Structure prediction request, 161 residues.
Amino acid sequence: MPDLAPLGRRAGEMLKARRETIAIAESSAGGLIAAALLAQPGASAYFLGGGVLYTYASRQILLGLPEEAFKEVRPSTEEYARRLARFARDRLGATWGLGETGAAGPSGNRYGDPPGHAAIALSGPAERSLTIETRSADREANMWAFARAALEMLEGALEGR
Prediction:
């Protein structure tokens, strides 16, 4: 994980310095976002928990999300990622929530998004979201790209940019 370690370290240091916490709800990144943050010594000071919410069942069981909470929102969109981020933040009582959803590949998802598509959102003192399109069918490379984008978004928010 050397590619994500510097981002996880910087974000973790800023969270610790600010005495803030984070909860993660990721899907297509497969746990890489959480792993980058947890790889840092002292992560328990800022990391409250997270999950790879890869199915509707895991979303309902792990975050306690009622089906109605997402009824009118298409998966793999920024609004969907925002809701994941908000529910993760609220469920774990964190300062920040980070949500990610997409299509890692090698094919697209059932909602019509191509491989390499991800929506990422941050909820907390600052609200941010973005959609990335790698235009690649390389599943593993996409997962790393999604995690990098999420960590860069977190770092930017913590730095106030």
In short: The chain has a mean pLDDT of 94. The chain has one domain: 5-159. The CA atoms of residues 23 and 48 lie 6 Å apart. Strands lie at 22-26, 47-52, 96-103, 117-123, 128-133.
